[in-house]
Structure formats: structure tokens, C-alpha cells
What does this fold into?
Amino acid sequence: MSADVAYMEKVYNYYSRFYDQIFGKMVDSGREMAPFLLELSPRSQLLEVGVGTGLSIPTLPRNVEITGIDLSEKMLQRARLRVESLGLENTKLLRMDANHLDFPDDSFDRVLAAYFISTVPDPVQVILEMKRVCRSGGFLVFLNHFRGENFLFGGVEKLVSPIFYRIGFRTDLKVHSLMEECGLTIESKAPIDFLGHWQAVRCVNP
It folds into this structure.
């Protein structure tokens, strides 16, 4: 495990105590969009990378097979309590580094990254791993903050990104450049919040 990955694990272990209070209601609208973007069918196999405390899980259908992975054991502990309280038997939670997913190729029909891809040191590597484990024709869905298209505002986000990274996330990811680098074409993109700082993005795995 790299030093940067270990640092993020430490940050989110700390955040686990109050993560739901900060990132719950604030961006719930994106999580509510996820099931529609994923177009899940009964018995679909879904992977959520960076499942965190499991905030997305209650919004997902109960007739799909869900696997959630996260590096932070303390976040996973809270996710397990959520799964138990919901009485879900179709959900499996595993501690795992998203840079090196311990699954065979083509293991999942759908892959979700909810408010996660800007928290990793190497987003390209993580997305390539997401592609690898997703079957051809499957959907990759990202709910995330991406750098603004406006030259001035985007420039500020790029400038302050190193500061924000120290507290757990970066602000300089440009969605079109990132997906192009990963060999993905954006099929749909919609704003999550009123100002459009947060985006719901769907790509089809080639």
C-alpha cells in the first residue's frame, strides 16, 4: 500500500464518526439518482467501490446482488450495521484497496462510485480496475464533484486542490479528460446540485 493510500485510509477512519452527518443529506439527491442510472435488473451483480458507511445501499433495489468495498475498516463497520438494520442478505462488504480489486475480470454487471473517485490518489488506476471487473456493455456510474468548465472557477478549483486533498478529496478532476484517459465515453451527464458542482455521470464499458 502506498503512503498516499495509507494517508487516505487514516483520514476516512477519522471521518467515519461523523461522515453521515456531513455527507448524508447534503448529496442524497445523487444517491437517489443512482438506481435509475444503473438500470438494475433482478439478480444484477453490482459493485460499489468506496462504499463508505453504506449510504447508497438503502436506495438500491433489494433484488440485486450488492458487493461493497472500502479501504477504511471503521467506515465498513458502520456500513455493516446499516446492512444489518435493513435486514439485507444480498449485500457483501469487504475491506479492499480500489487500486487493486481482488475480483476476476468481468465479475459485475454494474459498478458504482458514489462520491469516491476524487478521494483516491490515482483515479485513473481505480477506474481502470472498475472497467476490468465490469462486464462489456455494463454501466459505470460516477457521482462526484468535477472541476468546473468555467475558466475562472475551474482555475480556482485547480489551485486549491492540493489543500483540499489533505482533508480527503481533490477538486481538480476534469470529467471529460479523466474518462478519455481511461478509455471511456460519457453516455450521460447530469447535475446533482442546483449549481452543477456535483455531477452524475454514466459510461458504458466497451
Summary: Residues 3-204 form a domain with the Rossmann fold fold (CATH 3.40.50.150). The chain has one domain: 3-204.
